[in-house]
Amino acid sequence: MKFGKVEDPGMVDFSMPNDHPDTKRVLSNGKGNPRVFVGCAKWNKQDLKGFYPKGTKDELGYYSSQFNCIELNATFYRIFPKEQFEKWRDKTPENFMFFPKVVQNVSHWGRLKDVERVVEEVVHVFGGLEEKLGRAFLQLKDDFAPKDFDRVAKFCENWPKSVPLAMEFRHPDWYGDPKVAEELYHVLESNNISNIITDTAGRRDLVHMRLTTPNCFVRYTGANHPSDYTRMDDWIERLAVWKEQGIEEIDFFIHQNVELESPLLAAYFTEKLNATLDTDLHIPKTL
């Protein structure tokens, strides 16, 4: 995930913003006692060198013994048959969850217009995961701007409510223009769609801290820099506050510009999370 990469992370102000005033209100509608999912973006052995023991053949099997979820980016590039999702489901332990990315035909090629048929197909194949289907997520292109707000509103209203959804908005005007931002928050909240927080060095505007459901979906990209760990500490503190305010689910996905360090960062984060939020997540083994 090279989006937001900078040449010198040491020059970036990584201070975490205060919560948007409405985040506490949204969380107050939650039931508390959150389910917590922490994972990486992929299980590919080539990207995660040093994570898999020598001789590992079943990469997903091993990955799912160390993490309780995966941000399934592979589904962005093509529509897999339902049978493939069923195989992934059957390979993983009970309580493991998949958070699949909506195919680019919807977000990038179709740009949310006239995509009903593709959405129907996507939801159908995601159904192969059955009880292991987490929140699907959709990422819009960097150049998808508020001029197409009507498309967003229609898409959100028509998205099948049987599959929970999170959305990532990258064009700077979605959060840079307060009026546009408030309209966006209203649409997402009205349709029970999570507003993804993308924590990456070069786009601090996307750390908007405005939740639209009692669920947070965080895509965290480290910079392969010592600041990665202090940023993690800040996230632990904020998640502890959200737990007190009633959050129902925490979905936290860890990327690195050099992915082989993702499991190391995930192990650090999980250990701190267990200590602070009183969770009991398995701490991934790192070689």
Structural commentary:
- By secondary structure, the protein is an alpha/beta fold.
- The protein has one domain: Protein of unknown function UPF0759 (TIM Barrel, Alpha-Beta Barrel), CATH 3.20.20.
- It contains ten helices and nine strands.
- The chain has helices at 21-28, 59-66, 82-91, 104-109, 116-126, 149-158, 173-176, 178-190, 227-245, 262-277, and strands at 35-40, 69-72, 97-100, 136-139, 165-168, 194-195, 197-199, 215-222, 249-256.
- It has a four-stranded parallel beta sheet.
- Strand 4, helix 6 (149-158) and strand 5 (165-168) form a beta-alpha-beta unit.
- Helix 9 (227-245) packs parallel to helix 10.
- The longest helix is centred in the C-terminal third of the chain and has 19 residues, at 227-245.
- The two termini are 23 Å apart.
- 41% of the residues are buried.
